[in-house]
């Protein structure tokens, strides 16, 4: 089945190959298998599949990946807006 | 594109492992903490551990051994939680549990203390010897709790120390559900506890194969799915929400009818019912086949088609005399309702990001509000004329 996609070019995911050691943690944790290991470096196949869960950045021991993690949930964003929370989250 | 092989028949039950339950951060309101927190801490073990089979001795005291088959209470509890009854308080006491004849060499699997998450894991461990380390995620499933950080580095370290895990098992390996990764920095766990973290599969259903393969996950096990079946299950849960709106709309119409406005006719009411079902159910189920990317747009599009159908069906369009206002109400309100509800499904989907939804909302919310406001003005005109 084709992988579903939301809007293009919106993700805050950034990856610096210079810091990568090819340990493979990002490939292990990404729920959309966006990262893969090409020999000694991680490679990104399609940034538009990123849902900004933050798993890769959190588990990269070398700080090669950054992303603003958050929930892609309209309700959570509305509620956070109303409650004046800075980062939308559930609950 | 890598690996898009069809895999319908093996399509799992929405992993409680992750979101299943998924109606969660990516979720319905119940799990998003809209409901009251009162008495939340009150009753772990409401039914006092009917799922505990016996206890075994360990160097750190007795450890409960859990059953791997569901009892009637488990199933009843699952159905109730699924439909939002007591979901916020469906918990397991955090700590260490044993499965089968767990020994010092048996693998340790980490789970959340939302009972559905815990249940889906223990059921998959039938016939195996293992340990389950349950973190205190405040009764929230793994993925959502990881997003909030309660399924996180700090809690895992604390739980490893609290349970004196290093004296119970002889190895130093923890298997975490992959969807716990947004909350846990594996290298920090290793540094602080000397336990190595291995991320297991996304779905509990794959745990057995993962273990049998020597703790290796296939790419298929690593990927979150969002097929027709998943969307169906989710919308069933999502509908408990729109249902509340249905009740409100019905109540409003009923009150108006008491005031002498006989608007509670099926004819006046079904357009709205349809718009709600379209936004809450039809759009999610048909998601990949509706053109466009933004959820609100998909909802608006089908809502517009619905409004067109309603207006033709009720003969409201010109040249019919004096009905264009009601037709306008339908064109303005119905797509707005569908768009709004469809937009809410971003939370249940597994592929929308915060950035994406923010961008979508920046366009969609003003349009929905404008359309609904003008629609309500027209509705008022129609109602006043009917007096």
List the main descriptive attributes of the protein structure presented here.
heterodimer, A: 91 residues, alpha+beta, two-stranded antiparallel sheet, B: 387 residues, alpha/beta, Rossmann fold, seven-stranded mixed sheet, 14 helices, disordered N terminus
Would you kindly provide a brief summary of this structure?
The complex is a heterodimer of chains A (91) and B (387). With 91 residues, chain A is α+β, with helices and mostly antiparallel strands. Chain A has three helices and four strands; from the N terminus they run βαββαβα.
Count of DSSP helices of chain B? 14
Ends distance of chain A: 33 Å
- SSE order of chain A, one letter for each helix or strand: EHEEHEH
Estimated structural class of chain B: alpha/beta
Question: How are the elements arranged and paired?
Answer:
The complex is a heterodimer of chains A (91) and B (387).
Chain A: E1 14-15, H1 25-29, E2 35-38, E3 41-44, H2 55-59, E4 65-66, H3 74-83
Antiparallel strand pairs in A: 1-4, 2-3
Chain B: E1 52-56, E2 63-66, H1 72-82, E3 95-99, E4 108-111, H2 115-124, E5 130-134, H3 142-148, H4 153-162, H5 165-168, E6 173-176, H6 186-193, E7 196-199, H7 207-212, H8 219-222, H9 228-238, H10 242-258, H11 266-286, H12 295-313, H13 324-344, H14 354-386
Parallel strand pairs in B: 2-3, 4-5, 4-6, 6-7
Antiparallel strand pairs in B: 1-2, 3-5
Q: Can you describe what's shown?
A:
- The complex is a heterodimer of chains A (91) and B (387).
- Chain A has 91 residues and is of the alpha+beta class.
- Chain A has a single domain (14-83), classed as Alpha-Beta Plaits.
- Helix content of chain A is 22%, strand content 13%.
- Chain A has helices spanning 25-29, 55-59, 74-83, and strands spanning 14-15, 35-38, 41-44, 65-66.
- A two-stranded antiparallel ribbon of chain A has the order 1-4. In chain A, strands 2-3 form a two-stranded antiparallel ribbon.
- In chain A, a hairpin with a 2-residue loop joins strand 2 and strand 3 (41-44).
- Chain A is elongated.
- Chain A starts with 13 loop residues before the first strand and ends in an 8-residue tail after the last helix.
- Chain B is an alpha/beta fold and 387 residues long.
- Chain B is built from 14 helices and 7 strands.
- Chain B has helices at residues 72-82, 115-124, 142-148, 153-162, 165-168, 186-193, 207-212, 219-222, 228-238, 242-258, 266-286, 295-313, 324-344, 354-386; strands at 52-56, 63-66, 95-99, 108-111, 130-134, 173-176, 196-199.
- Chain B has a 7-stranded mixed beta sheet, sandwiched between helices.
- In chain B, helix 9 (228-238) packs antiparallel against helix 11 (266-286) and helix 12 (295-313) packs antiparallel against helix 13.
- Chain B is elongated.
- Residues 1-48 of chain B have low confidence and may be disordered.
- The chains are: A alpha+beta (91), B alpha/beta (387).
- Chains A and B meet through helix 1, helix 2 and helix 3 of A and helix 3 and helix 14 of B.
């Amino acid at each position: 089945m084709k992988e579903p996609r939301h809007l293009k070019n919106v993700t805050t995911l950034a990856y610096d190959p210079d810091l990568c050691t090819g340990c493979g943690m990002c490939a292990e944790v990404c729920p959309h298998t966006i990262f893969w290991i090409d020999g000694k470096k991680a490679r990104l196949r399609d940034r538009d599949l990123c849902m900004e869960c933050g798993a890769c950045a959190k588990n990269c021991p070398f700080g090669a990946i950054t992303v603003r993690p958050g929930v892609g949930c309209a309700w959570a964003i509305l509620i956070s807006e109303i409650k004046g929370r800075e980062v939308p989250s559930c609950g | 594109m890598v690996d898009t092989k069809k895999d319908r028949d093996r399509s799992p039950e929405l992993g409680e492992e992750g979101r299943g339950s998924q109606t969660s951060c990516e979720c319905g309101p119940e799990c998003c903490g809209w409901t009251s927190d009162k008495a939340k801490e009150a009753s772990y073990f409401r039914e006092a551990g009917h799922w505990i089979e016996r206890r075994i001795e360990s160097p750190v005291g007795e450890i409960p051994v859990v059953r791997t088959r569901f009892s009637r209470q488990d199933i009843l509890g699952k159905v109730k939680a699924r439909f939002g009854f007591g979901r916020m308080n469906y918990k397991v006491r955090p700590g260490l549990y044993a499965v089968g004849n767990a020994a010092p060499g048996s693998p340790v699997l980490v789970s959340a203390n939302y009972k559905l998450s815990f249940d889906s894991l223990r059921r998959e461990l039938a016939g195996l010897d293992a340990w389950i380390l349950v973190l205190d995620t405040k009764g929230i499933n793994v993925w959502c709790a990881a997003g909030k950080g309660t399924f996180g580095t700090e809690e895992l370290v604390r739980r490893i120390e609290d349970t004196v895990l290093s004296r119970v098992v002889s190895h130093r390996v923890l298997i975490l559900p992959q969807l716990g990764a947004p909350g846990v920095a594996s290298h920090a766990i290793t540094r602080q506890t000397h336990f190595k973290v291995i991320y297991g599969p996304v779905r509990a259903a794959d745990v057995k194969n993962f273990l049998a393969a020597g703790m290796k996950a296939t790419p298929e096990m690593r990927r979150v799915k969002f097929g027709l079946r998943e969307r169906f299950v989710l919308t069933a849960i999502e509908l408990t929400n729109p249902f509340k709106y249905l009740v409100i709309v019905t109540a409003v119409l009923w009150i108006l009818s008491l005031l002498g406005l006989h608007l509670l006719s099926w004819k006046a009411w079904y357009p709205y019912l349809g718009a709600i079902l379209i936004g809450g159910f039809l759009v999610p189920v048909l998601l990949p086949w509706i053109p466009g990317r933004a959820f609100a747009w998909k909802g608006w599009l089908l809502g517009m088609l619905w409004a067109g159908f309603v207006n033709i069906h009720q003969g409201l369009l010109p040249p019919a005399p004096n009905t264009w206002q009601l037709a306008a109400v339908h064109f303005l309100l119905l797509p707005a309702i569908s768009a709004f509800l469809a937009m809410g499904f971003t939370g249940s989907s597994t592929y929308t990001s915060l950035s994406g939804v923010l961008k979508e909302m920046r366009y969609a919310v003003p349009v929905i509000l404008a359309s609904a406001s003008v629609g309500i003005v027209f509705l008022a005109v129609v109602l006043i004329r009917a007096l």
